[in-house]
Specification:
The chain is mainly α. The chain has nine helices and no strands.
């Protein structure tokens, strides 16, 4: 039996998420997976909501450790790359967007401040930088929610024959370009 600690519980919970999906993740299932009694999980997480928040934070680790912008970076390239990194991270986990939706980046506040300071130092008005980061984040979560909910090829028998096949990557890039172009326009004013 693996020695149980907070990190082990989170790791196993994320593995369970990948296997069964968010709707089927439960403390009962997790306890069984860990070969412990369900109440022992409360030593680490008082509620399922606390567990889900810890899982969301851990799932975002690849994005949270991505390089921060440097003063010489082009803010437009950085903004697009940062948003793409967020998308890739959400896609790493089954139901990654649903897990992340509604969470607050409490562990990432210093990094978020650095990102905002970079945009402002690059000439983006502070309020526009805030709104663009928020809009890009919400757009990305929504895009990934739709992508992860897509049944995929072969499961679309109920769709009209003339319905175009959705290319999630192209749709994401088009939406990101619209957000970025809008921000460039606002910055040029």
């Amino acid at each position: 039996m693996t020695k149980m600690n907070r990190a082990v519980v989170i790791t196993e919970a994320l593995s369970l998420l990948d296997e069964v999906g968010l709707d089927a993740v439960s403390t009962r299932r997790l306890a069984k997976r860990l070969n412990v009694e369900q109440p022992s999980l409360y030593w680490y997480f008082r509620t399922k909501k606390d567990l889900l928040a810890a899982m969301a934070e851990a799932a975002m680790e690849p994005h949270a450790t991505a390089p921060l912008p440097s003063p010489g970076d082009d803010w437009r390239d950085w903004f697009a790359d940062n948003t793409r990194s967020f998308r890739r991270t959400l896609l790493m986990r089954r139901d990654g967007a649903r897990l992340h939706a509604g969470t607050t980046p409490t562990g990432d506040l210093a990094r978020l401040r650095r990102k905002m300071e970079f945009l402002v130092a690059s000439g983006v008005p502070e309020r526009d930088a805030q709104m663009a980061m928020l809009a890009a984040g919400r757009f990305t979560v929504g895009s990934v929610l739709e992508e992860q909910a897509d049944p995929g090829p072969g499961d679309d028998a109920d769709l009209p024959a003339d319905m175009p096949v959705i290319d999630h990557e192209s749709a994401f890039e088009a939406g990101l370009a619209l957000i970025l172009n809008g921000l460039v326009h606002r910055t040029a004013m």
